[in-house]
Amino acid sequence: MKKYLEILRKCPLFDQIEEEDLLRMLGCLGARVEHFDKKYTILAEGNPAKYIGIVLSGSAQIHQVDYYGNRSILSEVGAAQLFGEAFACAEIQAIPVSVIANEPCEIMLIDCSHILHTCSNNCGFHQQLIFNLMKDLATKTILFHRKIEIVAKRTTRDKLMAYLMLQAKVAGSNTFEIPFDRQELADYLEVDRSGLSAEISKLRKEGILENRRNLFKLL
Q1: Which residue, among 49, 99, 95, 54, has the nearest Cα to 74 in the 3D structure?
Q2: For residue 201, what is the enclosing H or E element?
Q3: Radius of gyration for the chain, computed over Cα atoms and rounded to the nearest angstrom
Q4: Among the CATH numbers 2.130.10.10, 1.10.10.10, 3.30.420.40, 2.60.40.10, which is that of 153-218?
Q5: CATH code for the part of the protein at 2-144
Q6: Which helix (DSSP H) or strand (DSSP E) does residue 24 occupy?
Q7: N or C: which terminal CB in the chain sees fewer CB atoms within 10 Å?
Q8: 153, 171, 156, 147: which is closest to 201 by C-alpha?
Q9: 131 backbone dihedrals φ, ψ, rounded to 5°
């Protein structure tokens, strides 16, 4: 586990936890690391919610598929980020999403019950761990509401511009990269790909933006 210390120290779950405690904590929590190839399902929809995942390398996407097979991308998770924590804390019997490896990646899996219930060792860092988990859940709730604000827009153009302006604000620049290709962006915005491409072309012609693949510039 030592080789993952640098990335784990950036993970919000382990904020304010000393490095010397971190390795001992991972053993106490029964953490394990697994490797996944691109497009491999890390957590499958319908399975019981049990594990919290931490991306150690690579990235993954959280997908939801409706009755007719239409895919919606809820979010992308990269190195040092968590996934599955809300479902695991709620202990729901069937998770409503799938987590798919976006590229070859290493994932640390932790049984959530080992976090929520203190062990017999009465580890001093456990209270901080629970606080960090609750803080992460609150942050994710805010981000989820931001996505609702975007997809609630009436038109594809409005959804796209709301998303791009948010990304520019996060990047602190009018030039920025997004983590999605064209189909993935359509799935995230919950719009038709051809309609999305048409709107991007219109916005380019109107001098509102420039783009090349997933690199955008708001003019």
Answers
A1: 99
A2: helix 193-205
A3: 19
A4: 1.10.10.10
A5: 2.60.120.10
A6: helix 19-29
A7: C
A8: 156
A9: -60, -45
What is the three-class DSSP state of 98? strand
Which amino acid does the sequence have at 137? L
SS3 content of the chain, % helix, strand, coil (to 5): 45, 25, 35
Q: What residue spans in the chain does CATH classification 1.10.10.10 cover? A: 153-218
What is the 8-class DSSP label of residue 80? T
Which tokens go with 180?
Answer: 């999605």
* Per-residue model confidence as pLDDT tens for the chain (219 residues): 778 889 999 999 999 888 878 888 888 888 999 999 999 999 999 999 899 999 999 999 999 988 788 888 888 999 999 999 999 988 888 999 999 999 999 999 999 888 887 666 656 677 888 899 999 999 888 888 888 899 999 999 999 999 999 999 989 999 999 989 999 999 999 899 999 999 999 999 999 999 998 899 999
Residue matched to tokens 């490896």:
101
Q: Where in the sequence of the chain do the CATH 2.60.120.10 domains occur?
A: 2-144
